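anyone seen this seq b4? input:
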Amino acid sequence: MGDTSTLTGVLAALSAAFSFALWNIFLQRGLAAGAPARLALLTLAAAEVACFVPPALLLAWHGDLPPLHPRGLAWFLLAGVLTTVIGTGLATQATRRLGAAETTAIRLLDPFFAFVIAAIFLRERVPARALLGIALLVAALLLLQGRPGGRSATGQRPQRAQGLAFAVLTSLAFTVGSVVRKAGLTLIPSAIVAAAAEGIAGIVVIGAIIALRGEGGGLRALRSPAARDLWRSGLAAAAGTFFLNVALQRASVPVAVALRNTSPWFTLLLVPLLLGTQHRATRRMWCSTALLTVGMLCIVLR
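predicted toks r here
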């Protein structure tokens, strides 16, 4: 029974990695087609609500939902704000400046931030292997920031620096969101309830922002051809969120995190197919992703 549960967790984590790779790629396509950045947040939240609220209501109708602990629901709603709103907003800005491949690769910093949080709040010891991992992560980021010389490269450096900052903050937001989500899953062990609550939180917060800014008329863009890829992106992210919740329930956290973070490799392989060969990853990109992966494994695998 335990082996079956672990295998389910492993497959769910890999499915999450593949889904999140598609999320970033379709996000880049939608933004390149001229879709407003705010629609990326709205389509993701709407996709989560559409995919998971009906199944949650159906389970409730049949009496198959676990008890809805108020504190667990609060954790899920907070996770929705951190990931669906803040994390996705930051990821959108990073993808605008760096593209899908580099933005996804920097998500390999998630275990680093999880490690830092554990070291600060749980007072865990810092093993030598983790220090090596941190050094490799720093080297990978420096490699990503570096570019061959020239006027065009010099002009792009401020934009790349901003993109890297947004991508790093994206990683931090999603890491804290995962910690919060895990706290909710210990009280309400349901991946469907978690995803539904996160989508509802996203819809409420994003809707409030749009209403306060008087941008309601811009919602017509949701039906535009340019928004189609954002809808695909939102559905992919919704699927990734569900699979990640299943992985966190069925597998150990280090295993789930390590496998979920194979997402950059899926992205490197899928980018030429879905964005065109002109976006094929460079040798520098492959090397930096490899360094990020090894650094992540040094931190996760104890």
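Residues 151-187 form the longest helix (37 residues). DSSP finds twelve helices and no strands in the chain. kinda curious what u guys think
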